[in-house]
Amino acid sequence: MIELLDIIKTRRSIRKFKPDAVPQELIEKVVEAGAYAASGRGNQSPVIIVIENEDLKEEISKLNSEIFGKPDFDTFYKAPVYILVAADASANTCVYDGTLALGNMMLEAHALGLGTCWIHRAKESMEHELYKDLFRSLGIEGEYVGVGHLALGYADCELPKAAPRKENYVYYVK
After folding, report:
1. Tens digit of pLDDT for each residue in 86-123?
2. How many domains does the chain have?
């Protein structure tokens, strides 16, 4: 059995994915880990949206690349699954809640033998009609803050090694 600290210490961002489909049961386990993340006052402000539709993934990737300023760059690294985490803007802990959900999902994915990479620009993406249409189509109402995307799939590379921890990272006061 892999210990939690070992999972934490060995999880790294993956930037090259195999085209292999991720089994639904593994996706569900990853999403469940996100759904059980801690949230301010237990409000569960995030929504987690799993995106496997190729046309929508292409549109999201294109928009993300344009926001990034590199329109020909695949910011999702050809991952077979995208996961969007947005959180209810009325919750004063919305960004923290969404961040914890993303963190839980990254750790669970690693424990299951999957790779992930947190993809930024979700906040800016939420301002575009593509995302507004997506939320409407899912019946999600209200104001949401884009917290992050997660590229999910099987790594097509060696897992990067952890950088040594910096000096003066942890202090104890007794």
Report:
1. 999 999 999 999 999 999 999 999 999 999 999 999 99
2. 1
